[in-house]
């Protein structure tokens, strides 16, 4: 008998809950695998999918979003060895799983902590409540491949945003494997869209897209590119998260900054006593 | 591929004389090769139209849109907003052409007419080269409406065009209501739209009322019950009567292809409508699940092409319903060019019955002019 030949995997994009090849048909080699090289039209399709998902995801109850994020952690736990096989340190996988759990817990607490009943000089209830911004474009950091990605995606979606993530060129395999986890975690299609390829090529299209509401530039290493993207983002006044000035310790307590940066506050006046 | 060669080319005027001659003629039309038609439509849908050709196609498609609202919930305010949008689809860009027509229910015709042709200085239509920026030229240019409208690039070629029988611009000038300042036409559905199931007198009265209210195009539905049970003479006579009731208004005949079941029926209905005097044949009401498809439009385009070869009269085609994206619209334009020919690539001869299509066209247009992807937030809801 001849020796069995292993089946090799094609690493594709993750758009709208599906795994399409790049519209351009391009790919590039990473660790002996072919990985899809996204084009501007994939960005466009991903933004469409993300926009379509906003209503359902932001309209889901906070409790339900928390459950789904926790489910992601459960699924990730089951695939631990797969990530280790891709070269992700075991400690980093554990950290990533714990991070999903940590953010899952925040889902139904954000409104309590960041909403408020404001004292006003009149017969009104004056209530401020945080709401998601909408579609968020994210440039994921190169390192750590898994923990860095989870640390930028989870805080964006926990509040009801949907994301289009441009995965760093050098480390796409854990990202696509994570998308397989997301696809089996009851996360509605389109809430997270992952595009592999060259962010320097596709990011300007994402930054200029008029139907994107916020831009997270965490993964941009080149200050000139970051400035250019921020300028493009000004076209429709996107919220922009600038990249950190120095090195980031991704294993440290993430804090709430990434979540609150992608929230908008809605204040309503409601008459009382009438 | 499958050409509808009429057997008795010379004398089609006698075909409508009796049930027997109609049946002989319609059933003598060659059958449609279903697989071939679908294959060809699919093949033409794969053409890649980019950059300047795409820009041209988008502007042409905008000029071909019959901006439609046919809902029970239509209000005068909604129709006014729609008519204003028809005149200036993209208020931020004066180079954006107007659409071809507004399509409403008869009761909403006066409301739309007031906006399209009302006392205020109406916007002149798009300049002929499609790049003009004089959208809000006050008053009515004396040239408007007095010459037949020609295409962006000079088509339709008049060499082949036996357009004399139609002389559309002249016919329009003779209309009582509309001033020629606006080139946006006003279409009204009539004849008990969308079912067509009402006594003939009611349908004719419906038509006359719409014309009297100011509509210069009438979209009628055929009596599918009669057509499907083979009473061709009845359908023929009804279309003929409605055409007479239309006066100078142009008649679009809705075949409701989704209910005709086969391409053979679509071909027969197309010929029947054209023989009875239709100025346009239209696929659908938009009220049944199956609306316009590429193969059905292909069959209809073949019919109008062969009808012109046989009789010298050019008839327009209007797919309606289900066309929502620029990509779809461009597929239809390719189909028109490859099937009927460039003579039909003009708003006088090809229309899109649509509402949401316009916003997608505008988004694509904005993408081409600004270089960044646009979003639905920046365009009005219909």
From TrEMBL, chain A:
Keyword Oxidoreductase: yes
Record-linked InterPro entries: Ald_DH/histidinol_DH, Ald_DH_N, Aldehyde_DH_dom
Span of domain Aldehyde dehydrogenase: 34-241
Swiss-Prot/TrEMBL keywords: Oxidoreductase
PANTHER family referenced in this protein's UniProt entry, alphabetically: ALDEHYDE DEHYDROGENASE-RELATED
Name recorded for this polypeptide: Aldehyde dehydrogenase
From TrEMBL, chain B:
Keyword field: Lyase, Schiff base
Pathways involved: Carbohydrate degradation; 2-deoxy-D-ribose 1-phosphate degradation; D-glyceraldehyde 3-phosphate and acetaldehyde from 2-deoxy-alpha-D-ribose 1-phosphate: step 2/2
Location of region: Disordered: 122-177
Known catalytic reactions: 2-deoxy-D-ribose 5-phosphate = D-glyceraldehyde 3-phosphate + acetaldehyde
InterPro entries (alphabetical): Aldolase_TIM (IPR013785), DeoC (IPR011343), DeoC/FbaB/LacD_aldolase (IPR002915)
Biased segments, Basic and acidic residues type: 157-170
EC numbers for this chain: 4.1.2.4
Top EC class of this enzyme: lyase
Similarity comment: Belongs to the DeoC/FbaB aldolase family. DeoC type 2 subfamily.
Stored PANTHER family: DEOXYRIBOSE-PHOSPHATE ALDOLASE
Protein name: Deoxyribose-phosphate aldolase
Organism, as annotated: Plantactinospora endophytica
């Amino acid at each position: 008998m001849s020796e069995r030949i292993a089946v090799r995997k094609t690493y594709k994009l993750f758009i709208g809950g599906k795994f399409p090849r790049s519209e351009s048909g391009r790919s590039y080699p990473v660790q002996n695998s072919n990985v899809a090289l996204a084009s501007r039209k994939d960005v466009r399709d991903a933004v469409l999918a993300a926009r379509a998902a906003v209503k359902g995801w932001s309209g889901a109850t906070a409790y339900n979003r928390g459950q789904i994020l926790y489910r992601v952690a459960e699924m990730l736990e089951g695939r631990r060895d797969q990530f280790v096989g891709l070269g992700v340190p075991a400690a980093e996988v554990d950290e990533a799983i714990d991070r999903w759990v940590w953010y899952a817990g925040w889902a139904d607490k954000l409104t309590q902590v960041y909403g408020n009943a404001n004292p006003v000089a009149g017969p009104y209830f004056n209530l401020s409540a945080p709401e998601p911004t909408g579609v968020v474009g994210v440039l994921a950091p190169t390192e750590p491949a898994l923990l860095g990605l989870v640390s930028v995606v989870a805080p964006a979606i926990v509040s009801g945003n949907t994301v289009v993530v441009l995965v760093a060129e050098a480390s796409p395999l854990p990202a696509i494997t994570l998308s397989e986890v997301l696809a089996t975690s009851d996360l509605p299609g389109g809430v997270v869209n992952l595009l592999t390829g060259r962010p320097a090529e596709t990011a300007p299209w994402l930054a200029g897209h008029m139907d994107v509401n916020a831009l997270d530039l965490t993964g941009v290493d080149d200050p000139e590119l970051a400035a250019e993207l921020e300028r493009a983002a000004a076209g429709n006044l996107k919220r922009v998260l600038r990249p950190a000035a120095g090195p980031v310790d991704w294993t440290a307590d993430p804090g709430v900054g990434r979540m609150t940066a992608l929230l908008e506050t809605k204040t309503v006046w409601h008459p009382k006593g009438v | 591929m499958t050409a509808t060669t009429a057997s008795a080319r010379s004398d089609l005027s006698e075909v409508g004389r009796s049930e027997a001659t109609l049946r002989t003629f319609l059933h003598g039309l060659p059958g449609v090769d279903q697989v071939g038609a679908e294959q060809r439509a699919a093949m033409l849908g794969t053409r890649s139209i980019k950059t300047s050709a795409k820009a041209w196609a988008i502007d042409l498609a905008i000029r071909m849109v019959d901006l439609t609202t046919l809902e029970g919930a239509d209000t005068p305010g909604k129709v006014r907003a729609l008519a204003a949008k028809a005149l200036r689809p993209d208020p931020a860009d004066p180079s954006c052409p107007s659409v071809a027509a507004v399509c409403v229910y008869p009761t909403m015709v006066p409301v739309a007419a007031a906006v399209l042709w009302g006392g205020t200085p109406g916007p002149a239509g798009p300049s002929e080269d499609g790049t003009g920026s004089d959208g809000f030229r006050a008053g009515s240019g004396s040239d408007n409406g007095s010459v037949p409208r020609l295409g962006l690039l000079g088509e339709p070629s008049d060499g082949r065009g036996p357009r004399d029988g139609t002389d559309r611009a002249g016919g329009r000038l003779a209309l009582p209501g509309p001033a020629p300042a606006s080139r946006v036409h006003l279409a009204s559905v009539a004849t008990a739209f969308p079912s067509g199931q009402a006594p003939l007198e009611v349908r004719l009265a419906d038509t006359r009322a719409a014309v009297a209210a100011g509509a210069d195009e009438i979209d009628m539905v055929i009596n599918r019950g009669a057509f499907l049970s083979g009473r061709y003479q009845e359908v023929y006579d009804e279309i003929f009567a409605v055409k007479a009731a239309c006066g100078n208004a142009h008649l679009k005949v809705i075949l409701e292809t989704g209910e005709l079941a086969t391409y053979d029926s679509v071909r027969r209905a197309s010929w029947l409508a054209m023989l009875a005097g239709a100025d346009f044949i239209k696929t659908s009401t938009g009220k049944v699940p199956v609306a316009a498809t590429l193969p059905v439009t292909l069959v209809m385009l073949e019919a109008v092409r062969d009808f012109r070869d046989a009789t010298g009269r050019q008839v327009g085609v209007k797919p309606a319903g289900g066309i929502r994206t620029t990509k779809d619209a461009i597929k239809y334009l390719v189909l028109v060019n490859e099937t009927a020919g460039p003579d039909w690539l003009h708003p006088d001869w090809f229309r899109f019955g649509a509402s949401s299509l316009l916003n997608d066209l505008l988004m694509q247009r904005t993408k081409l002019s600004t270089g960044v992807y646009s979003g639905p937030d920046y365009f009005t809801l219909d």
